[in-house]
């Protein structure tokens, strides 16, 4: 989208960090890549530890969920009412990022604890199985099972809100789950009421329809973007497996998006995934889906983990919470 090319201009606060990030070599060995991803987890805990609520304000519990050919971990967070009453809460199912190949429930753990207490929201943080050992659709099926299994979580009332949310690869899973649940009778009485897609991966680079190619300039403009480059996107997509043209791999390609829940979409300007998310916003709105879409010019994919103190980092967190409240309020116009 040529009209959005200005979003690639580095943010003045972020610009001094560009050279250092660009000097970090890309890694395509799965073991080394997962080891490096631990830096994201460490950065996340450092960024969000000042906002941790008191442990008396929430209940954390790790559960083992039965999935196809195994079990996965789901970490639940439930607010503790200060009045000591048996209040019930809306539910958010969270799916972490990591290019489908890395990450776990620790990545966003501190941030989710804060959101649980601030917004009085029950949260399920899903440790879906990773590619390439578990190729598509394993991670999607795991996440879908976790969403269905926890719809009846203790002290949850999904009539107060049922949100599916994720970042990057987790954003892809959240978008696919929203579509799958739309067709599933199980969710008729417990419909998903909102989706949060943060820097989502929505269209496999190897399955871009001809009619959209001119709209995806960010693939080229941000070919060497820091944190996430185009080559890294290609590598991760290859590790995921599946047919690139399958809508469950590329949710943008679903023939219809009508009837989906409202969506909060957060997009970084210096990100190869930028234009597919902007295009998805347009497609959703054309199909009658309410969206609240926010862009962060001149910062890279998942910048907030490392640069939470920047003005845009603080705005990201404010928008995230405001978007959650918007969804929980029924996404008013």
TrEMBL record:
The keyword Nucleotidyltransferase does not apply. This is Alpha/Beta hydrolase protein. Residues 92-304 form the Alpha/beta hydrolase fold-3 domain. It comes from the Eukaryota. InterPro entries: AB_hydrolase_3 (IPR013094), AB_hydrolase_fold (IPR029058), GDXG_lipolytic_enzyme (IPR050300). SUPFAM superfamilies: alpha/beta-Hydrolases. GO terms for molecular function: hydrolase activity. Pfam families: Abhydrolase_3. Keywords: Hydrolase.
């Amino acid at each position: 989208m040529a009209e959005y090319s200005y979003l690639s201009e580095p943010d003045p606060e972020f610009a001094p960090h560009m050279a250092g990030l660009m000097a970090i070599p890309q890694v395509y060995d799965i073991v080394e890549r997962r080891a490096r991803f631990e830096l994201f987890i460490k950065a996340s805990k450092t960024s969000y530890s000042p906002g941790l609520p008191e442990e008396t304000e929430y209940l954390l519990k790790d559960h083992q969920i039965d999935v196809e050919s195994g079990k996965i971990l789901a970490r639940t967070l439930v607010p503790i009412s200060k009045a000591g009453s048996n209040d019930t809460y809306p539910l958010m199912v969270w799916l972490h990022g990591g290019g489908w190949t890395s990450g776990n429930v620790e990545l966003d753990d501190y941030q989710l604890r804060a959101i649980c207490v601030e917004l009085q929201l029950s949260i399920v943080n899903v440790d879906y199985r990773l590619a390439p050992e578990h190729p598509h659709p394993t991670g999607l099926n795991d996440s879908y099972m976790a969403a269905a299994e926890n719809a009846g979580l203790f002290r949850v009332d999904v009539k107060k809100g049922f949100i599916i949310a994720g970042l990057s690869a987790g954003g892809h899973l959240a978008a696919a789950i929203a579509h799958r649940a739309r067709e599933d009778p199980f969710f008729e009485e417990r419909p998903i009421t909102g989706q949060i897609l943060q820097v989502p991966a929505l269209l496999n680079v190897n399955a871009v329809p001809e009619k959209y190619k001119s709209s995806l300039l960010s693939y080229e403009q941000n070919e060497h973007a820091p944190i996430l480059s185009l080559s890294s996107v290609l590598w991760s997509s290859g590790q995921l497996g599946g047919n690139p043209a399958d809508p469950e791999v590329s949710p943008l390609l679903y023939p219809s998006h009508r009837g989906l829940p409202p969506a909060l979409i957060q997009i970084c300007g210096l990100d190869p995934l930028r234009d597919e998310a902007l295009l998805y916003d347009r497609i959703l709105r054309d199909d009658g889906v309410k969206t609240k879409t926010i862009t962060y010019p001149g910062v890279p994919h998942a910048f907030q983990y490392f640069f939470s103190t920047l003005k845009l980092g603080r705005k990201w967190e404010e928008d995230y919470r405001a978007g959650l409240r918007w969804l929980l309020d029924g996404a008013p116009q």
